[in-house]
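Record 1 of the preview.
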Amino acid sequence: MRVIAVVLFCHFLAAFTALGMPLFLPRMMVSLGGSESDYLIGLMFIVPTLCTAFSAPWWGRFADKYGKKTSLLRAQFGLGLGFLLSGFADSVPMFALGLMVQGVCGGTMAASNAYLSRFYQGKALASNLNLTQSSARLALVSAPVILGFFSHIDDPLTLYRLLALLPLMAFGLCLFLPRDNAEGSVKISSVARQSVAVNEATTPGFSQVLWLQFFFCFSMVVTFPYFLPYSEQLGVNSDALSGFYYSLPHLVYLLFSFNIKSLSMPAKLQSQIGFSLLCLACVGQFLLVNSVGLLIFRVLFGFGMLLIFNGLHLIVSRQIQQRDAGLSFGRFDAWGKWAGVAAGICASSAIQVTGLNFPFLLAALSCGCALVGLVLFYKEVEQDVDPIKE
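->
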C-alpha cells in the first residue's frame, strides 16, 4: 500500500478521535459530577489546544533530531494514552489531566505532514497537505454525527476508552511505514537540493506564512463556538438543520479538494481570492437578520476555505527545508492553535457586550489583515520541485 494512503487513513483515525468528542463535553462534565457551566466547559475545550500550541515546536525539533516516523508514532500513541486517561477518570481534575496529555503528546497533523515531506516536495507536497486537511474535514463532519448516537449512554466516558483504540490502531499501522532516519531514509535528488538552495536564498521568511496561518485559523474558529445559537437567532429551529449549515463549508472542501490541485493559478492569487471570499461570506453572515441567504454565504465560506488552504499549502511547500521540516510544521501547527485559543476568548468576550453575529465581523477583519499582509509583504517566487524518488 502506498505511503500516502497509510498516512491518510491513520490521520483520519486520529482526527476522528480528537475532533469527535469536544461537542459532548457537557455530558462528560455531568457524568463526573461537575458543572454544566459555560466556564468549565469552555476551559476543558481549550485545554488540549493550548497544550498543543505550547508543545508543537518542541515536538518539531524532536522529529528533526530523531526522525519524522518516530514523531508520528509518538503522536498516535500520545493521543491514545490521553484518551485512555480521560476515559478512566473519576473526577474533573483527572479528566483534565487526560486532555492535557492529549494536547501535549498529540499533534498528529503536524507529525503526518512532516513525515510526508520526506517523500514529497513542491506541488506534490502541497497536494498531499490538502489530502491531510481533507481527512480532518471528513472527521469533523462525520465524527459528531456518529458519536451522537452513543452520547446518551449511562457512562459517556466509555466513548473515550473505545475511541482510544483508534489512534492505537493507527500506531500499529504506522510501525510498518518506511523509516526516514539517516540509515533508512529516502535520498534527495540533486535537482531537489538545488531547488531547496534556491528556496533558502529567494523566498520570503517563514514568519510571514505563520501570520497568514494565524489570521486564517482565527477567521474560521472565531465563528464556530456560538454558531448554534446564532443560527437559532436567524430562525433556524432544527438542530439538524443548524448542524447542516455548520458543516456545509467542510462539505464544500471535501467535494472539491481532490480537484483543486489541477488549478494553475499562482499560490498568492489563490490565497488573495480565498481570503476575499471568506471575508465576503463573514460580512454577509454578520449582516443577516434571518436565514434567507445563509446557505449561499456558507457555501461561499467553504470555497474561501478551499482556496486559502490550497494557496497556503503551496506557499508552505516552497518554504519547507528537509533539515528542519519537523520544526517548520510544528510552528505552523502551533500558530494555528494559538489562533484558535485567541478566537475562542475573543468570541466569548464579544458576545457578552455585542451580539451573536459579532464574531463574523471579527473574522472578516482578520481576513482583511491577511489580505493586507499578502499584498504588501508577500512576494511570490514560483518554484516547483519533483517528488523525492526512492
